Amino acid sequence: MLELLKNDTKRITHIPYETRHRIRQLAYFRMIHGSDLVCRQSTRMDRRCFAILCHLLRTIAGLTSTEVVDVKEMVAMFLHILVHDMKNRVIQQDFMRSGETISSHFNIVLLVVIRLHEELLKKPQPVPMIAQIKDGGALDGTYIKVNVPASDWAKYRTRKGEVVTNVLGVFDTKGDFVYVLAGWEGSAADSRILRDALSRPNDLKMPKGQRYHLQEWRGPENAPSTSKEFFNMKHSSARNVIERAFGVLKGRWTILEMTNFDIEDNIDEVDSTHATTVVDDIHYIETSNEWSKWRDDLAEEMFTDWELRNQ
């Protein structure tokens, strides 16, 4: 019996290249060109957005097809991995590619996408209803799990014991990114990361002034009775924008919640930032009389406008 099985295995043939190529084309076509619904489920964007992204990667970031994989296929594999946290072996089956091909092309697209930060990060816009604030937003940090050498675990470990990198994000009032600073250790204090952002050549711009105790103004409250209460209430609402933006980010790209990244592959490349002006929870920034007066005048004007609208 064993002899028969051994002889039978000799007759097993590999799938011809042409057949594998057609299977690969069919998988790509169904994922991207079948319908907008299927395309969104696979890549988190419709067919038009996918085509625009591929165009930007080619013309601006310099992505080119390789001998074995064209641009659209490698971008489709890249997005499919990010969206569903797909393992290499699963992508091998779906796209009929070797594990080495998938890994190398994923890294190619990753580095090229980062070059698009000037195009992908939103430019700061005036805050609606507050003419005095030219470019405004809110900032916060989030943790992304990473793989680091055992000797560095202590630096990247949080109080909860997770090995992570601390990513600073700044959002406009719509929840779009306008600034990103990645690569800091998970144990780093937020104030230290903020100081680093402020000290960089294309630094994060912030008005100088006192910090605000947002916690005092959170939760259900009565209508504000003074300009200070109204200003702090509006100030605190920025927290909701941040939490929603990070929630959407991690919900859309499942890999951010599930996978541990190799920190060496990300720190140097992801540190691509775009400067903006932000008013938010500021810690350990020197008090400025000029800024304090500007803030108080703004608070009075906002409160007066609000009272007139609610009479």
Keywords:
2 domains; alpha+beta; elongated; DUF8040; 311 residues; 50% helix; four-stranded mixed β-sheet; 14 helices
Report on the structure:
- The protein is an alpha+beta fold.
- It is built from 14 helices and 4 strands.
- It has 2 domains: 2-120, no CATH class; 138-309, no CATH class.
- Strands 3-2-1-4 form a 4-stranded mixed β-sheet.
- A hairpin with a 5-residue loop joins strand 2 and strand 3 (177-185).
- The longest helix has 26 residues, at 227-252.
- It is elongated.
- Residues 209-218 and 266-285 have low confidence and may be disordered.
- InterPro entries: DUF8040, HARBI1-like, HARBI1_dom.
- It is found in: Nucleus.
Question: What topology emerges from the helices and strands here?
Answer:
Blueprint: H1 2-9, H2 17-32, H3 36-43, H4 47-59, H5 71-84, H6 88-95, H7 99-114, H8 117-120, E1 138-147, H9 153-156, E2 164-171, E3 177-185, H10 190-199, H11 227-252, H12 255-258, E4 261-262, H13 267-270, H14 289-309
Parallel strand pairs: 1-4
Antiparallel strand pairs: 1-2, 2-3
Number of strands: 4
Helix/strand order: HHHHHHHHEHEEHHHEHH
In the predicted model, the low-confidence regions spanning at least 5 consecutive residues are 209-218, 266-285
Overall shape: it is elongated
Percent range of helical residues = 40-55%
**How many discrete domains?**
2
Largest sheet: 4 strands, mixed
N/C terminus separation = 93 Å
Strand order, main sheet: write it out. Answer: 3-2-1-4
Q: Give the overall pLDDT as a whole number.
A: 76
What portion of the residues fall into strands of 2 or more residues?
5-15%
